[in-house]
Design a protein that fits this description.
The protein is of the alpha/beta class. The protein is built from 17 helices and five strands. The chain folds into three domains: about 130 residues, Rossmann fold (3-Layer(aba) Sandwich), CATH 3.40.50.620; about 120 residues, Serine Threonine Protein Phosphatase 5, Tetratricopeptide repeat, CATH 1.25.40.80; about 120 residues, DNA Cyclobutane Dipyrimidine Photolyase, subunit A, domain 3 (Orthogonal Bundle). Strand 4, helix 4 and strand 5 form a beta-alpha-beta unit. The radius of gyration is 21 Å and the shape is globular.
Length: about 425
């Protein structure tokens, strides 16, 4: 029996974590590790940080919670900082590790890092085994191969719902054998090159990182308030904590898995009844899957100006003045401004808001959609590479939208979704 390393990334949980479960089953001892990858804290070619203060703070909270939960089971979390392909091999040598278990990646930069780590481990005769832990449906269970996945969501959804099954989630381990893991040592925001941020009191929800908080939020939204039963009617709301599930930040960091949520939805339906709303939450999880599988299929195309289409309709220009007005909430539109001010002050924005500000950026301001996506990457507390870039490409008309061009009438949207000006009054005062 050997020692294995579990490389935690955006799967910061004990429930339904296949990499962790496999490592425990096949090893005598395991060493759980998280690496602060230097590249995640760099400035992108678009001039924005890859990780902003809100998400970094959420990450630190999530790691603190993961360490506490691991210690209850006899383990702990080892923290390193630098390049994973440099830092992980050092631990492999120190602990005489024969195998590394990690979450499988699909996006370009993440896959490149995974490959570099694998190459360095190979030199040490250490194997890297990856598990698919981020989706509701497992890629192997889809009714089509990755290259044949339909590019239109409705076609993907109908066939997947009809012909694929959702696997049972993995049980949380009951004990973990590890060598002595030193006390948790997290870098400060300052050490990551970021300033401390405080979420505005007006925020729809005060996000706090960690699996414990994710499960607490689920219990609140499902069982304490039964908000799940009216999710479909309220999901386009813009003010308050409970108009939508707000699971996105915990899902993005992997503090909770889609399969775990699905299991709880099924339990809830048994107890309180199934309806359009309980179905709709699972439907939204399927959108996450769709974008992730699209990244597997199209790879780097989602980062190109022309996206997955061959022709591009809007301008490739960048106007610094317009970009500044948009990002600071100083445009001609009060509805856009309210949303952008909320994002800047909280790291969050409703789904309805995101669609509007992206449409405004691409269609009214006529700028390169990737700059908007990169700004979101820095700001969002719930940034997920596939959902963010997939949705932006969709709104820019170069993604998976079956319609030719999706252009939001902002005034009509403001009137439909903020009729009483409640949202705008909250953020523009």
């Amino acid at each position: 029996m050997k020692t294995a390393l579990v490389w935690f990334k955006t799967d910061l949980r004990l429930e339904d974590n296949e990499s962790l479960v496999k490592a425990i089953a096949n090893s005598k001892e395991i060493v759980p590790v998280y690496c602060f990858d230097d590249s995640h804290f760099e400035t992108t070619p678009y001039g924005f940080k890859k990780t902003g203060g809100y998400r970094a703070q959420f990450l630190l909270e999530s790691l603190q919670d993961l360490d506490a939960n691991l210690r209850k089971l006899g383990s702990g979390l080892l923290i390193v900082k630098g390049k994973p392909e440099v830092e992980l091999p050092k631990i492999v040598q120190e602990y005489k590790i024969q195998k590394v278990y990690a979450k499988r990646e699909v996006a370009f930069e993440e896959k490149r890092t995974e490959k570099m780590v694998q190459d360095e481990l190979f030199k040490l005769r250490c194997e890297l085994e990856t598990c698919s832990t981020s989706t509701l449906y497992h890629a192997e269970d889809l009714p089509f191969s990755i290259k044949n996945i339909p590019d239109v969501f409705t076609n993907f959804r109908k066939k997947t719902e009809k012909d694929a099954i959702i696997r049972k989630s993995f049980e949380k381990p009951t004990e973990i054998h590890s060598p002595e893991i030193p006390a948790l040592q997290l870098p400060s925001l300052d050490a990551l090159g970021l300033k401390k941020v405080t979420i505005d009191k007006r925020a729809a929800i005060q996000f706090k990182g960690g699996e414990s908080e994710a499960i607490k939020r689920l219990n609140h939204y499902f069982y304490e308030t039964k908000c799940l039963s009216k999710y479909k009617e309220t999901r386009n709301g813009m003010v308050g904590a409970d108009y939508s599930s707000k699971f996105s930040a915990w899902l993005a960091m992997g503090c909770i898995s889609p399969r775990y949520i699905h299991t709880e939805v099924k339990k809830y339906e048994k107890e309180f009844g199934a309806n359009d709303s309980t179905y709709w939450l699972v439907f939204e999880l399927l959108w996450r899957d769709f974008f992730r599988f699209m990244f597997k299929k199209h790879q780097t195309k989602f980062f190109l100006y022309s996206g997955i289409q061959s022709e591009k309709v809007n301008s490739k220009s960048l106007n610094e003045k317009l970009l500044s007005q948009w990002s600071n909430g100083a445009t001609q539109s009060d509805f856009i401004n309210a949303n952008m001010i909320e994002l800047k002050n909280t790291g969050f924005m409703s789904n309805r808001g995101r669609q509007n500000v992206a449409s405004y950026f691409c269609n009214e301001l006529n700028m390169d959609w990737r700059v908007g996506a990169a700004y979101f990457e820095e700001q969002l507390i719930d940034y997920d590479v596939c959902s963010n870039w997939g949705n932006w490409a969709y709104l820019a008309g170069v993604g998976n939208d079956p319609r030719d061009h999706r252009w939001f009438n902002i005034e009509k949207q403001a009137n439909d979704y903020d009729k009483k000006m409640e949202y705008r009054n909250l953020w523009l005062k």
